[in-house]
Structures are given as structure tokens and as C-alpha cells.
Write a structure and sequence with these properties.
With 200 residues, this protein is α+β, with helices and mostly antiparallel strands. The chain has ten helices and eight strands.
Length: 200
């Protein structure tokens, strides 16, 4: 596989795989398993725990009894072993407290609440941006890298079948997180990179 240089936009350093790789969630295959599998909860950005708390009265009826009990015990977030603020997990399991089950499928209760018009907060940006992982550094730089998880092999395959690149699939959350101008510059960088890939 050909290696491309990193893309830099202002204070962002972006892996070229976000442009060259394909991705499209294959929910019918995974049934939302990312909500119940993982070593820690979903990373929370500054202010997101407060947004959950502010909208909790609308979100909580969509959660499981166990999820509500966990929030009562620990609050709206936990600090994981790396010192990061994350969504709470249930007991010794890997299940996020904000998970909602509908049959065998897992959904985010926060997102379900948003879709029903109950709150303006969609869900943690770390969830919305997956498979992009965001890392922030002390020099004010932010890195965007592609995360590969065997759980999402079907999503990478579906993206290739349908011709949807990672950055295209994540247009809305990337724009919401980093702004319209950022996404325009990312699109322009993608056009140049993909023309090179195609040999034009």
C-alpha cells in the first residue's frame, strides 16, 4: 500500500488514511456492538458531561434500569486508568451506561433522545467521529488518526463497496467538531491526494 504524507490544516495533523481509506457503518452486521465492547467508556470532551447532565431528565427514560442506577452511583462520567474523562461502564462489564437495547441491537440513549427531539446534544463527539481518534498535545496541536477495529471490518468493506471515504462518511460530525472551513480545507486536500492516487 502506498504511503502518503500527513495532511496539516492549521493546528491539525491528519493521517492521510482518513482520506484514502473507505468506511461506512454496517449496523445490520455489528448491531451497535461498539456500545458494549471496549476497555473503557467513550471519551468525553470538555463540557460534554455537563451537556449530558443538563439533558438527563429527557435521556434517562430511554436508558436501562442498570444504566440509570450506575449514573446515580457514579455521576455522569468516570475517569479511566489513563486519566481520561469517559462515559461510565456497568459494573465489571464493557457496556456503556447510556446504552439502549432494542431487541438484540444496541443504540445510544443520548442519540435516540436527540433524534426524538428531546435534546440538542447528539452524543459524545468521540462516538460520532469513529473510526477517527482525536489526540490533543501540549503544543496545541491536534492529531486525527484512523483507528482499525476488527469489530468494524464490515464497515470498511461496505465503504469500499459503496465508494465512501472515511472523511466523506464523517462530513457532518467533522464539520460540527472542527468547523465548516476545516472541512472545506480537508476536502481540498483530499482532492489533491486522490488525484495523485489515481495518477492524474
Amino acid at each position: 500500500m502506498k504511503r502518503y504524507p500527513l495532511i496539516q490544516i492549521d493546528d491539525f495533523v491528519i493521517s492521510s488514511e482518513i482520506v484514502t481509506e473507505y468506511f461506512c457503518c454496517n449496523y445490520e452486521e455489528c448491531l451497535g456492538a461498539c456500545c458494549i465492547i471496549g476497555e473503557s467508556g467513550a471519551p468525553l470532551e470538555e463540557g460534554e458531561a455537563e451537556l449530558i447532565e443538563r439533558n438527563y431528565a429527557a435521556i434517562s427514560p430511554l436508558m436501562s434500569i442498570e444504566g440509570r442506577r450506575k449514573i446515580e452511583q457514579t455521576g455522569f462520567f468516570e475517569i479511566d486508568r489513563d486519566g481520561d474523562m469517559v462515559t461510565p461502564l456497568l459494573g465489571n462489564s464493557e457496556e456503556c451506561a447510556y446504552t439502549r437495547f432494542e431487541g438484540k441491537a444496541c443504540f445510544c440513549a443520548i442519540e435516540r433522545c436527540h433524534m426524538a427531539g428531546g435534546c440538542s446534544f447528539v452524543k459524545p463527539v468521540s462516538c460520532r467521529l469513529y473510526p477517527i481518534r482525536v489526540s490533543r498535545f501540549s503544543n496545541s496541536m491536534t492529531a486525527l488518526n484512523l483507528h482499525r477495529w476488527n469489530l468494524c471490518e464490515g464497515a470498511f468493506a461496505k465503504g469500499r463497496r459503496e465508494g465512501i471515504r472515511v472523511y466523506q462518511f464523517l462530513k457532518e460530525p467533522l464539520t460540527d467538531a472542527f468547523g465548516v472551513e476545516f472541512y472545506k480545507q480537508l476536502e481540498a486536500a483530499a482532492d489533491l491526494l486522490l488525484k495523485e492516487e489515481d495518477g492524474r
